[in-house]
Amino acid sequence: MSTIQYQLNKDIPVIAEADVLVIGGGPGGLGASVMAARMGAKVILVERYGILGGMSAQGEVSPFMPSHLSRKNEEGKDKLYTLDRPVYTDWVSKMNTYYPPELRKVCEENVEAVVAKVSKEISSLAIEDLCLEAGVKIIYHHTLADVKMDDDGHITEAIFLSKSGFVAIRAKAFVDSTGDGDLSVLAGAPSEFGGESGYCQPMTSCFKIKDIDISRIPPNEELQKRYLEAKEKGEIKCPRENLLIFESLDKNTRHFNTTRIVMKSAVNGMELSEAELEGHRQVKEIFKWFRDTIPGYENASLQSFASHVGIRESRRIRGLNYITKNDFMNAAKFDDAIARCNYTIDIHNPLGTGTEIIRMDRTDFYEIPYGCIVPQNVKNLTVGSRCISVDHALHSSCRIMPTVVSIGQAAGAAAAMSAKSGTDVSALDGKDVRRELVKMGALL
Ligand SMILES: Cc1cc2nc3c(=O)[nH]c(=O)nc-3n(C[C@H](O)[C@H](O)[C@H](O)COP(=O)(O)OP(=O)(O)OC[C@H]3O[C@@H](n4cnc5c(N)ncnc54)[C@H](O)[C@@H]3O)c2cc1C
User: Fold this and answer.
1) Closest CA to 223 of 243, 193, 240
2) Fewer CB within 10 A of the end CB, N or C, for the chain?
């Protein structure tokens, strides 16, 4: 590839200042900004698009996967409790205010254990509500482009590209909630990529089909058989081994998590563009196949599809601590734990067909220590996002939205503590962060 020499030498306006600057408005950014604001920090949340929600909105991802603990209740019966609170349960409750009455009832009765279906509009509006209620200043349509550092390993300003050109925002502490670790890498933190094969988990363009005659859909076994036959005949070209279909919030509608785009990097601009095109190709092919061949779908139409290809995994930022599949297998616990999880190891084959699943007993969980959210080499930055310091296998478990909200809230709590005390997040004792999180309602 040829290169050109280009230098940007400009005076850039500083458009805002904050105690805590959170970049990226997905589930992690929700946790980070709301928790930091509730702890008294002046918080700005910057998002590159015009809606919040990250993969739950732009990626059309649904439902929230469960990270639930099974415990006996007072009557001695087994009951499920979410490991993720308070911001995650607040998100579910806030989404609930937009649900129709019959669904609202289910959620109100059991916000602890509900496996909430997500729609992008509701997810996004509920996050915006929670942020505004907490006093977070939201800035849309600004994409992180660069950072300015001092000589001592602190980020001083983040530089964004917007319709006004380049602008800067200054803060005391920063949270990387970009999912891809953009901020951490720009600030000089090391990162890892992929598993043994060198590739990350595949991407998926989720979509929804509406106006289905549900009563006439063939049983799942029959549907899966037909899908494999269609693949065999070359009618469908998708590496996924089966159809992954969920019920939707909307009546007579189904949510498809079925396309699979392999061996593309989400942090390479051209490959990301190619992935988007391949995702669209599969959406079109699978939708038309359903409409033209599957009973019940004759009058169905495409309701919506992801406005951004779904990214399960890209960079993982190396932090002061690092945990692996062994910690999942041993249900590891840490004095400075900032989040808990017992969701499955769930690795969609980075190279093609197949999904590796390892389940954890619902009566136990593993913990994520503070050092996994503090990047090496940067003193005033935490990672409040899926891209924390864990290996490929463990990432496949802790990347689910409820856990990412909890990771985010820990990153926000540490940033708020740092901004208040003047102690760098890298010098904070994780046990103190844990204590503050418990005070704020976390289950740790
Ligand atoms: C196809 C697919 C299916 C999944 N299925 C499930 C499921 O069923 N249940 C479940 O719980 N989880 C599921 N997940 C996982 C979950 O959706 C993600 O891991 C989670 O959304 C990660 O949250 P995040 O906040 O770290 O990142 P993201 O959700 O990716 O959010 C990052 C945010 O940062 C913004 N951003 C990125 N870069 C910049 C930048 N440079 N400047 C400004 N803003 C930026 C983005 O626009 C986005 O809003 C799935 C993921 C995928 C891709």
Assistant:
1) 243
2) N
C-alpha R_g of the chain? 22
The residue type at 84: D
168 Cα to the center of ligand 1, angstroms: 24
Q: Where are the domains of the chain?
A: 11-196+314-444, 207-305
pLDDT at 102 over 80: no
Does the beta carbon of 204 lie inside 6 Å of ligand 1? yes
Architecture of the 11-196+314-444 domain:
3-Layer(bba) Sandwich (3.50)
The predicted-structure confidence for 336-390, as pLDDT tens digits, reads as follows: 999 999 999 999 999 999 999 999 999 999 999 999 999 999 999 999 999 999 9
SS3 86: coil
Provide the token pair at 312: 């399960």
CB 286 less than 6 A from any atom of ligand 1: no
Ligand 1 mean position, distance from CA 306 (Å): 12
Q: How far is the CA of 376 from the centre of ligand 1 (A)?
A: 23
Q: Indicate whether this model's pTM tops 0.90.
A: yes
- Please spell the DSSP secondary structure of 157-213, one letter per residue: EEEEEETTEEEEEEEEEEEE-SSS-HHHHHTT--EEE-STTS-PPPBB--EEEES--
